[in-house]
Write a structure and sequence with these properties.
8% strand
Length: 796
Amino acid sequence: MVEVLNKVDRVLTVKPTPRVEKLREAFVRLKIAASINRARIETRVMKETEGEPMVTRRAKVFAAVAREMPIDIWPDELLVGSTSVRAWCHEISPADGPALEAELEEGVQSHYTGAGAEYAGPTTLSDEDKRELREELIPYWKGRGKYEKTRWGRNAQKTPHDMSWLHFSGMHYGHNCHAFEKVLKKGFLGIKEEAEERLARLDLAEPEELRKVPFLRGVIMAMEAAAEVGKRFAARARELAEKEEDAKRQMELLKIAKVCDWVPANPARTLHEALQSYYFAWMLVLWETPYAWSFTPGRADQYLYPYYEKDMREGKLTKEAAQELIDCYIIKLNQITQYSYLGVGGVKANGSDATNELSYMFIEAMMHTRLIEPILGVLIHGKTPDDLLIKAAQLCSLGTGHPQFINSDVLVYQALGRGSLGGPPITLEDARSATPMGCIEPGIPGKDSGYLNIFGARLATAMELVMTNGWSQYDHMQIGPETGDPRQFKSLEEVREAFHKQVAWMRRNSQITGNITEQTIAELSPTVYESALIEDCIERGICREEGGAHYNFNTGSVPTGSTDAGDSLTAIKKLVFDDKKITMDQLCDALDKNFEGYDELRQMLLRAPKFGNDDDYADEQVTWVMHEWVSEAKKIKNARGGYCCPGGSPLTGYLSQGMVVGALPSGRLAEKPLSDAASPSAGSDLNGPTAVLKSMGKIDNVEILGGVVLNMRIDPGVFKDKDGFKRLADLIRTFVDQKIYHVQINVVSSDTLRAAQKEPDNYRDLVVKVAGYNAFFVQLSKPLQDGIIARTEHGL
């Protein structure tokens, strides 16, 4: 697209090298695929190890996968590695239950791709692979734990609002940031020595100490196998070099071999070694748990800067060569069907600004590549340099949905706030090291146990149940507690009290379901490699699933429909109790009939004040809804010994959950999309982006300890001249001043999006921000595309 390339040329500091352009183009041409290579290895090892402790069996599975998975090195690469036999290919698990069987039967590929159902399409598995799955692999898992425990499938009998059915196939949710910096500094052999030393200190006469032996032996086994990964790629590089006719590429392959001979087994010494070790360490987490949603590389500019600075100081590297390596690293993150979050900027341990040269170079790399991954977060605070803000604004102007803006000040406050829930307090140094992970949620790198499977809070559903006394219009049954006949409510306080009871009921169900799920995971899928990269697991001699991590706070109870619920309360307050233009009886009748025959009443509801316009009357109710949900969610105690940190991204839940929610007092019709995350309802934010930020700033973002998503769209015309970059930078300064945690901005016109719907082949590399993640627009479902188009397009 010529228009996009012209925009890119305006903002680049240096042009991408021909290598980077070729690697980018090769990726854009890929179609998502699936493989059963890992499934074969996992099933064979589990058969061979029956009767042994589960943690030992999982360690042996990881070791076998690390040593046996097919590997290759692709043309032009400087950094190597992948989780599958080819790029953008997901390794499925035969243990994923009836959902996998149903999809094999239907010939589709969605749940088990790892990239999300929006990429659903014809399966890429061969007939022989499908036969092997049906006749050899899946039969072993039937009746064995995870397979039977899952009830998630297309043919499952479930009630959409019944939280007890959602067992996530016993899978790990992901959404964590591990001690990758430790791998850079010690290498896997160094971590292996740490586990050996801890094993030697055990007093085997003590039963509790004796129980730690399988885990520590498993860590040693996993670290040995992880250390050998580099050697495997080094051997492949030399094999290719012997056949390579191009002398330049031959030298590159021999250098790759030299790098991989050393890392990740040993400490990194150069930027090239650090990037390669960093990538291997992240890749191996996905070799252990392929069915998970997002693992985070963390704040890469901070981890890698010492290696960059040393290479530059010693004259071993040019800035141009360093930029090409970073570009190659960004492309490598795209070759795996998992979302990754990479942060730049923020603050140092002493509270000073952490911006360095690599902060700018990673933003530059995102301009060069313009792909889905990683989710780039620019951590902004009161002392962030103007130059970094302008650079981030320039990236934003390209219309790829990158970057997210994270308020580093709020991030630190949230991290400190977690320490008030119970368990070890979070130190100020740890809080300042915090990074967004998964989609947007805060985490302490290498110390958090990770996201737990705590079911989200359906706040729009809670509002519906208030108006039906617990009855679901979609399910045609009682799904919530009876909280009183709404026709008899005489005040807004009675409505709010009913809402409180519905949310409390949801919170209790969420805790029960979450704990059952977590117990299943701890029983059947303990992690050994991942746990070894989380502080205190080795010292305590237990995996993270059993509470081995230093911090066991979990993000969970993600809110959906908070704005719908708040706008509904505003409409009730305005029209029923303040202006007395309608009665609760009339409102209930209209909702029961989905406003059929009540168009005038619905228009009154739609004209009531709405969140996102800096109107205290409306903003007060959304603020109350958010606080009510947070207060309940923080009561959840998780199975690992910590507490729930409410928040996170509902992803595309505003579409799917909207389909099972009836009409609402906000004027929203039944089964229509809900508000997008914590954003204003589509089309209701009429007073410009600053008003949106001022409304969002009235919510206590700090108490939402797991973060919360705000989506916005800006007219691309804003950036016709360079002054547009400054205007966006000023808007982000306002965002920081309002103490909002997060905002992400799509800079793409509705005309462009509609053109992409009509001619997808011409827009195959159009990247948009969907929720907490990015995606190729033309690969999204039509309802999801329409949802993005429906967002208000603001000027500046």
